[in-house]
Every structure is written in structure tokens, then in C-alpha cells.
Amino acid sequence: MTTRRDFLKTGTAAAATGIIFCGCGLLHGVRAEEPVRHKLPVSVNGKRVKTVDVHAHCNFHEAGALLGEEGHRRQAGPINGAEETFIDLKQRLAAMDAQAVDMEILSINPFWYDKERDLAAQVVKIQNEKLAEFCAAHSDRFAAFASLTLQAPDLAVRELESAVKKQGLKGAAIGGSVNGVDFSDPKFHPVWVKAEELGAPLFIHPRGIPELKNRLAGNGWLDNTIGNPLDTTIALSHLIFEGTLDRFPGLKIIAAHGGGYLGSYADRSDHPCTVGPKGCNPDIKLKKKPTEYLRQIYFDSLVFTPEAIRHLAAQVGASQIMLGSDYPYPWQLSPVDHIFASTSLSDDEKADILGRTAAKLFNLEA
Q1: pLDDT digits over 327-361, tens only?
Q2: How would residue 29 be classed by pLDDT, with cut points 50, 70 and 90?
Q3: 48 is a domain residue
Q4: Which residues have a Cβ under 8 Å from the Cβ of 237 and sit 6 or more positions away?
Q5: Angle value at C-alpha 32, between 85 and 49, nearest 5 degrees
Q6: Number of domains, the chain
């Protein structure tokens, strides 16, 4: 196990690379007496499976520097392990090996949506260039989602096309909304047109709900514990109920944290327009029941327990779930273990969740 002393020795190398992996809590979250049950290489029923974590974070010094001290605060934040965010390649690979993760699809949580167009575009340009450079140099272990200047959809269209066609990035990571505007708003349609055209997956990662700041104050870090999953739930619900997924049926969406609360209480969504028709727009005629759209959305496996995996798979289909850890935030430090512990899944379903579905979606080498 890597110690804090080992980490400090590698800090200089991390600064040289210019890459930050945010909030490493893994180093403090595992005690020496707790053996890791699954290690690389991972096999299911005797067959090797390349494990792919679709929910892993990073940041870059150069991008945050454009926002000064505010940028550093937004990148790292007051989270567990924030003092250890500067991690070099050796450190990250050691952590992945300990987690039995062959490959990570890196993403950067958007912290630039409220910035003016040109400044945000500079942040995004640096991040996409750095992501492309890093992943090209270590393509056996890393791929990445592009960043987008979504507050300027015309820019986002060009950024997405360049990221996929020229930089080799695998899609884009987006928030749950942009400055209070939901993704179902027609202003974003050109971005979804381009994503559909490119076959580029969009990873929705929540950013919380500022409007609920007072209600979520107090013990329990509720703005994240409750607010983040709720943000994703709202984002997905708007895409469904506003007809966005009907308009763009080829859109490939991945929802973080198991899709928030939607997968846990999805069937309620099939009833509101019958119970309260005045709350529904008669001009929007969905082609399917709301719950049926969940079977065209992908979800990460960050729901913590085999029972939660069983329920999510029953609701959306095991084919729609992919491995996710939220690394380096210490939410789920052994992300493959609860997949193996899920007796409700067949061996093929486990292999798909662990990596085969992601390999197909992102066109990864076996």
C-alpha cells in the first residue's frame, strides 16, 4: 500500500506533468488489515475481463490558473484528501491496480459554466489538449471525456467535433444543467445533434442545486449526499418529459451515481400525467412510457451494494450499467467487489458491467 511518505516523494513529478487527480481519499480509506478481494487481472468464470471505470476525475493546474485562486478552490474544493490532489502517473496507476481497474475514462467536473465565453473557452481548450496528450501517452490505461463550453452552444459544437475527430477523446462530460437552464432547452439542441452525429457519449455528472443551499445546510454534506443525485434525477427527467430523447433517439447518455434517484423510484414517472394532467404539456406526446427511456440511458455502478445493483439492473437492464467509482473521491474504494458479490447477475452480465459494455461503447481495444 502506498503511504503518505511515498506520495510526498512523488509530488515534484506531479507538478511537472501539470495534471491533478482530485481529492485522493483512497490513501486514507483502506486499512492495512482489509485485503482487496479482487486484483488485476480480473477474470469472470475463467475469462479475462478488461475492467473500465467510466467515472474517474482529474484536473489540470493550467486550466484552474486561468481563474486564479478561485480556480484552485473550484478544482479541489474542501474534500477529503484535498491536500493530496497533486498525484503523478505512478501514484494513479498504483491506485488503479489496487482497485482492480484496468482503464479509467477521465472526466473533469465543469467549474467554468458561469464564466464569460472567451475565458471559459480558454479553460476548455487547455483541458482538452491536456487530456488528449495524457491519454495518447498512456492509451492502455486512460481515455477521457472532453470538456465543453456549454454556456455557448455554438462553441460546444465545435469543441465536441474537434475533441472526437482530432484529439481522440471519447465524448464529453457535462453537468446537470447550465446556469439554471436544463438540457432539454432548445438552445442545446445543436450540441445534441452533433453528439448524435458523432456517436459521442455524454457523461452527465451533477454539480448540485444552488437553489436548495439553505435546505441542504447542516450536518451530512447534504448538498452532495442528496443534492447531487437529485440534480441528475432532474436532468434526466427533463430530457424524458420534454421529449428531448424522442427528438434525439441516438443520443448516448451516461448518468453518474446510478442515475440519481430515478432508477429507485422510476415507476412514479409513468403516472403524473394521469393523476395531474394540468402539470403536463398536452403538446408533448411521448413515444414511450417514461420508464422505457431508461433502457436507452447508461448508468454507472456507483450505488454501493449488491442489492442496489440488483434493483438498478431490474429497472434499466444490466446491459445499461457500467463500472464507476468516482475515484479519487473515496465513495467506493473497491468498485468491482459489489459487482462480483451480486448474485442476481449472471457471469455475462458481470463481465459486461465490469468492462465489456464500456469497451463497445467507447471502441476500446480488448
Answers
A1: 998 999 899 999 999 999 999 999 999 999 999 99
A2: very low
A3: yes
A4: 262, 269
A5: 75
A6: 1
In a domain, 80, yes or no: yes
Query: What nine digits make up the cell of 116?
Result: 464569460
Contact 80/329 with Cβ under 8 angstroms? Answer: yes
Average of per-residue pLDDT values in the chain = 89
Q: Is 366 a domain residue?
A: no
User: Cα angle at 72 between 70 and 76, to 5 degrees?
Assistant: 125
CA atoms of 71 and 73, how far apart (whole Å): 5
* CA–CA gap between residue 93 and residue 106 (Å, rounded): 13
Among residues 286, 291, 309, which one has the least CA distance to residue 299?
309
Q: Which helix (H) or strand (E) holds 253?
A: strand 253-255
Give the per-residue pLDDT at 18.
Answer: 52
Residues 6+ apart with CB under 8 A from 146: 124, 127, 128, 131, 159, 160, 163, 164, 167, 169, 171, 172, 173
The letter for the amino acid at 295 is R
Say how far apart CA 143 and CA 249 lie, in whole Å: 25
Q: Does position 37 have pLDDT exceeding 70, yes or no?
A: no
- Does 159 reside within a domain? yes
Per-residue burial over 102-131, b if 16 or more Cβ lie within 10 Å, else e, is bbbbbbbbbbbbebeeeebbbbbbbbbebb
92 neighbors 15 (Cβ within 8 angstroms): no
Q: How many CA atoms lie within 13 A of 360 on its CB side?
A: 12
Which residues face 106 on adjacent strands?
A: 56, 144
The H or E element that residue 205 is part of is none
Q: Which residues fall within 8 angstroms of residue 219, CB to CB, at 6 or more apart? A: none
Residues 6+ apart with CB under 8 A from 279: 272, 273
pLDDT exceeding 90 applies to what percent of the chain?
A: 80
Instruction: State the angle between helix axes of 153-165 and 189-198 in degrees (0 to 180), rounded to the nearest 10.
Output: 10
How far apart CA 366 and CA 347 sit, in angstroms, is 18
The 10 Å Cβ neighbour count of residue 76 is: 19
Q: Note down the domain range covering 252.
A: 4-361
Output the domain CATH number for residue 209: 3.20.20.140
Q: Residue 165: is its pLDDT beyond 80?
A: yes
